[in-house]
Amino acid sequence: MGSGGRLVLAALMAVALAILHPSAEAASLHGGGLFDSIFAFGDSFTDTGNNPIVFGWYNVFDVVMRPPYGMTSFGGHPTGRNCNGRLIIDFIAQGLGLPLVPPYLSHKGSFQQGANFAVGGATALNSSFFHIGDPPGASPFPLNTSLEVQLGWFEELKPSLCQTDQECKDFFGRSLFFVGEFGINDYHYSFGKKSMQEIRAFVPDLIQTISMGAESDRARGEDSSCPWDDPVRMRAADPRRLRGRRRFGI
Ligand SMILES: *[C@@H]1O[C@H](CO)[C@@H](O)[C@H](O)[C@H]1NC(C)=O
Ligand SMILES: *[C@@H]1O[C@H](CO)[C@@H](O)[C@H](O)[C@H]1NC(C)=O
């Protein structure tokens, strides 16, 4: 772990400070210049606005684009977050003095300070795995937004951020890579469809896929992955949580 461990700790501290001093926005970390950019992968726990685009591709109604989402924050407009207020990734970005991480699929500006590839409802395993044996007209969920697809989008963006190996090493050496949460949806889409035995059987694959995703970030010269377990409790970091609504699992 080494430096990776330290960086995970830094991220945890950012969250902890946000909890302790919600109004100060973890001010003590501001200006630290620890990172120049944040690249994030995951599902609804981390998605800051990709899901409306993906749901649009599949003509699926997106519940988070109507009230109460966004009613009391972000200028009163839904952002695509599966939360009325800010997500952990937002607190971390603010804690590090960086802009909120822009959603890769909808942001029209620069990604020099980071990009968010997370999509609400995303699985760690390939979505095709969950559609095996689907009858005609079955739900399109999980959509094709697995960890592998998100890493593909990152590869697609990379040439616009750095060219040579050295340039990329320097650039991503100052990036925080935030991987997660992943896994909940893999279970969510399986309960009621697969047997407990079948679900247990894919757990090792699931864990390996998430580990490999996190490791492939590290291998790029980044030493800063944050695989999260279920961070539901950390949502307490959002002072507006009591007014917020969140549909669990997507
Ligand atoms: C996911 O699917 C792609 C093809 O669509 C395949 O190349 C890849 O190996 C699959 N990955 C896993 C983890 O099954
Ligand atoms: C999923 O998306 C990836 C990347 O956009 C694409 O290469 C792949 O063909 C898609 N798979 C399916 C089953 O649509």
From TrEMBL:
Keyword Signal: yes
GO molecular function: hydrolase activity, acting on ester bonds
Cell division keyword on record: no
Keywords on record: Glycoprotein, Signal
InterPro entries assigned to the protein according to its UniProt record, in alphabetical order: GDSL (IPR001087), SGNH_hydro_sf (IPR036514)
Matching Pfam families: Lipase_GDSL (PF00657)
TM region positions: none
Secretion signal, residue range per the UniProt entry: 1-26
Family of this protein: Belongs to the 'GDSL' lipolytic enzyme family.
Protein name per its UniProtKB record: GDSL esterase/lipase
Organism name: Aegilops tauschii subsp. strangulata
